[in-house]
Structure prediction request, 86 residues.
Amino acid sequence: MPLHPEGSKGKCTSCHACVKMCPVGAITMGEPYKTNEKKCISCGRCVVVCPEQARLFGGLLYKAVSWKFEKAYSEPKQPEFFYVNV
Prediction:
């Protein structure tokens, strides 16, 4: 997957919450602010559990995708109903 969380060495307090919650072991105890992009499945658990908000999705690709998502879903939508004639 192309989107991987990025860690901030300056904000990271090495609490290792992200290491413990990563289901694929993409974050190590020695460098909890780094993500092994080959192992990462972009689940976002490390971002959610970080008490210091030191891990975030970022980069140019993330900004482009988030802009497109916000543009498409910023307006409330009415539900659509489909009737199946059986």
Remarks:
- The first strand starts at residue 5 and ends at 7.
